[in-house]
Design a protein that fits this description.
2 copies of one chain form a homodimer.
Chain A (H helix, E strand, L loop, with lengths): L8 H7 L2 E16 L7 E11 L9 E2 L2 E3 L6 H13 L5 E8 L9 E12 L11 E10 L3 E7 L4 E10 L7 E8 L6 H18 L11 E2 H12 L5 H8 L3 E8 L7 E6 L4
Parallel strand pairs in A: 1-6
Antiparallel strand pairs in A: 1-2, 1-4, 2-3, 2-7, 5-6, 7-8, 8-9, 9-10, 11-13, 12-13
Chain A binds a DNA duplex (30 and 30 nucleotides) through helix 5.
Chain lengths: ~270, ~270
DNA sequence: TTATGTTATAATCATAGTGTTAATAAGAGA
DNA sequence: TCTCTTATTAACACTATGATTATAACATAA
C-alpha cells in the first residue's frame, strides 16, 4: 500500500511549485437611497471585490484573498484577510469549497479554499480600503446558464456560466465559465457557487441574522430574503416561518410616513 | 496590495514542505444476515476504512486516500483513488471539506480535501483489496458530544467528539477529538462531519438513490433512510415523501414469507 | 387445504403547516 | 380631518404530515 507515502522523487521536486490560498466571498445587504424625491430606499444584495494591481490579471477584479502563510491554518488565513479588509473581528465565516484545478493560476499551482463571510454593511462605516468596492448582484438563471451582473454604480461586470447537471458522479451542478471579461482567475465560478450555497442555506438555517443589525423590522428581514433569493415573498407566509426565530422588542421604527413597525431581534436561545 | 504575491523568500523556502491530499468517505448500506434461524437480514450503514502499514500511524485505521499528484486535479485524484479501491467508475463523488490545520500530519504540512462517495455495496462483489474493510457505523449524540462506534465484526473502533456551537463565527459546529485510539490523523473529525453532511443531504436531495440498486422495494429504501438517520420512520409518511421520486415497475419481490413487495426505480425525469 | 405469522400497502382521520386574499391599524403629511 | 402608505393580523381554503387502523398476499406449518 502506498497510501500517504510519497511515491517518487518527482513528487518532492514538484512540491515547491504548490501554494494554498483562500478567497473570501464577503456578502452583505444594504440600503441604497434611490431617489431624493421620495425616500425610496431599496435593498441590494452585494459582494465585495478588489481591483488587482499586479500580475496576473492586473486591472481585473477579484475576490479578496491571499496566500496561506507557512504555519498558518487555512481558516486563520481567511480570518486574517477578512479582518484586514474590514477591521471587524466577529464576522460570520464559513468554508465553502476548494478549487484544485491545476492551471487556475498562471504563476504556479495554487489550490484555493473559498470562504463565505456574512456581514451587516452598516458596521463597516466606509472603513474599507480604496481598492475594494461593493458590487450589487443580479442573477438570472435558466436551465442551462446563469447570467450574473455585478454593479458598483461605476462599472458593470457581466459573466455567463454554463450549468450542467452531472448525474450520479459529482456535486449537483458542474459550472463552466462561458463569458467573462473583467474577473480574474476562476472567480466567476466561486461567486456563482457561493451565491447558490447562500440561497440554499437561507432556507434551512438562521444564517441571515449575521447580515442583520441587532434590531430590525420584519419587513427589513423579509427584504433581505427577497433580495438574496431574487423573488418576492408573501408577507403572512414569511412571518409565520420566521415567527419563532425572532423576538419582539418594545421599540418601534417611526418616520416612514406610514404605520410604524415593531423592532425585532434574533432569538438565540432556541 | 500584496494579494496573490509571494511576500518573501520564506514563503518559497517553506513551500517544499507542503502537500495536498484527499481522503474519501466511502459510504454504503448493506444487508447482513443476522441469524439463520429466521432470515432476519438487517441493514447497516457502513464506511470503508484502510489499515495503515507505514509511518505515520502504522497499524491504525484510516480513510482511503492519498496525495494529489503534481499536475492532477484534486477531484481527479479522489476519483483515481476511488477507482483504485473499488474498480468501479461511475460512483457518486462529492467534495465535502478541506482540513488545513498545520500539524495534522507529522511528516509535513498536508492539506486534505475530503470527499464523500456513495455506493451500492452489491456492486462491489468483494472486489475490495485485503487491507480494506467495511465498518458498520453506530452514532449516539447528545448536546455536547458525539460517540461513534465502528465495527467490522472483528474489531471495534470507538471515538468521542466534542461538539461546540460556535455562534456567528464559523460553521455550525466545531468538532474536537476527545477520545480516539485506533484512527489515524484527524480522521475522526472527517468521519463525523461527513456523516452529518450525509444525514442533512438525505432530507433535501435525492442522494440516497446512489446507494440503491436499480430496482428496490419501498421498505428497503425506507430502511436505508432509517439506518443512516438512526431512527425509525413511519411508513405512510415516508411513502408520501418519496412517492414522486420513484416509479413503480411491474416486478415484485416474493419469497419473504409475507406479502410480496412492488419493485420501484428512481424516477430521473423530474 | 386451511390457519397463522409476517410484512406490504392503502385508507382514514386529525392536526399542523402553507398560499392567498382581504381587512384593519397607525404614523406622516397635506 | 383626510389621504397615502406600509405594517400587521384575520380568515379561509388547501396541502402536507403524524398516527392509527384496516386490508392484502405470500410462506410456512398444522
Amino acid at each position: 500500500m502506498k497510501k500517504y507515502k510519497i511515491k517518487d522523487d518527482n513528487d518532492l521536486k514538484e512540491c515547491e511549485k504548490l501554494s494554498i490560498s483562500t478567497d473570501i466571498l464577503i456578502f452583505s445587504v444594504s440600503d441604497e437611497i434611490q431617489s431624493n424625491y421620495r425616500k425610496l430606499n431599496k435593498k441590494h444584495f452585494s459582494v465585495l471585490l478588489a481591483k488587482r494591481d499586479t500580475y496576473p490579471f492586473e486591472g481585473k477584479w477579484c475576490l479578496p484573498g491571499g496566500f496561506v502563510k507557512p504555519g498558518e491554518d487555512i481558516e486563520d488565513a481567511a480570518r486574517r484577510i477578512l479582518v484586514d479588509k474590514t477591521n471587524i473581528h466577529d464576522i460570520y465565516l464559513e468554508q465553502l469549497y476548494t478549487y484544485g484545478e491545476v492551471n487556475r493560476d498562471p504563476r504556479m499551482r495554487v489550490v484555493s479554499t473559498s470562504y463565505m463571510a456574512l456581514i451587516d454593511k452598516n458596521r463597516l462605516n466606509d472603513k474599507i480600503s480604496n481598492n475594494l468596492s461593493w458590487f450589487n448582484i443580479a442573477v438570472t438563471e435558466d436551465e442551462k446558464t446563469i447570467n450574473v451582473t455585478l454593479d458598483n454604480n461605476n462599472e458593470e461586470i457581466k459573466f455567463k456560466i454554463a450549468k450542467t447537471l452531472k448525474e450520479k458522479t459529482t456535486d449537483r451542478y458542474k459550472y463552466k465559465i462561458l463569458e467573462n471579461d473583467k474577473l480574474a482567475f476562476d472567480h466567476p465560478l466561486i461567486i456563482v457557487s457561493g451565491i447558490s450555497r447562500l440561497k440554499n442555506k437561507l432556507e434551512y438555517t438562521d444564517i441571515v441574522f449575521n447580515m442583520m443589525p441587532k434590531y430590525f423590522t420584519l419587513s427589513e428581514l423579509q427584504q433581505v430574503y427577497e433580495v438574496i433569493l431574487g423573488k418576492k415573498l408573501l408577507d403572512p407566509a414569511f412571518r409565520r416561518i420566521i415567527a419563532n426565530k425572532v423576538e419582539k422588542t418594545n421599540e418601534m421604527r417611526t418616520g416612514g410616513g406610514h404605520r410604524p413597525s415593531i423592532l425585532y431581534k434574533y432569538k438565540t436561545t432556541n
